[in-house]
Amino acid sequence: MFFKLFPFTLVTLITLTTFKVSYIANGPCVRQLTQPFNISEEPTWDDRIKLLYFVDILAGRIYSYDPVTTILNHIQLDGYVTPIIPTVHDTHVFVAGLNRTLVAIRWYPKGSRLEAVGTLTTVAKQFPSSQFNDGKADAKGRLWIAIWNQWSLVRVRLNLFG
């Protein structure tokens, strides 16, 4: 049923674009909101400041999208970046995977100014080809992050949330 409503091939998902699903008289409507990205992942909505965050892994960019103004901002990091996780107590502090390192970032997401990057932890040396990949924070403020290549799920204990 899904493919009858939205015919596409899975190969086209390699180049991802941000879309908005809205409703018109006949049913749902999907609109393209941004240019295509290499590999965009980790969409995260921040209800406090009404922004959508996501990453373009291969480009090393973290984006914020404001659906009201349609402004798309980004910062550039040096390497593969994923995930992006906002912190609870400060809308300008994020946790991000940057290659093999988990970093804290101070960024004002309604602009493109990156103020600081600090290392939190690094993937263990016995896994030299592994790096951080998908991740989220749970309701208790714990980070759950998958590691690329080994495909194991780990919990990183950091006291970032008070």
From TrEMBL:
Keywords recorded for this protein, A-Z: Metal-binding, Signal, Zinc
Binding site for substrate: 133
Cofactor: Zn(2+)
InterPro entries, alphabetized: 6-blade_b-propeller_TolB-like (IPR011042), SGL (IPR013658), SMP-30 (IPR005511)
GO terms, molecular function: calcium ion binding; gluconolactonase activity
Superkingdom of the source species: Eukaryota
Signal peptide: 1-24
SUPFAM superfamilies named in the record: Calcium-dependent phosphotriesterase
UniProt-listed GO biological process terms: L-ascorbic acid biosynthetic process
Domain SMP-30/Gluconolactonase/LRE-like region: 40-147
One Pfam family matching this protein: SGL
Family stated for the protein in its record: Belongs to the SMP-30/CGR1 family.
Name the UniProt record assigns to this protein: Regucalcin-like isoform X2
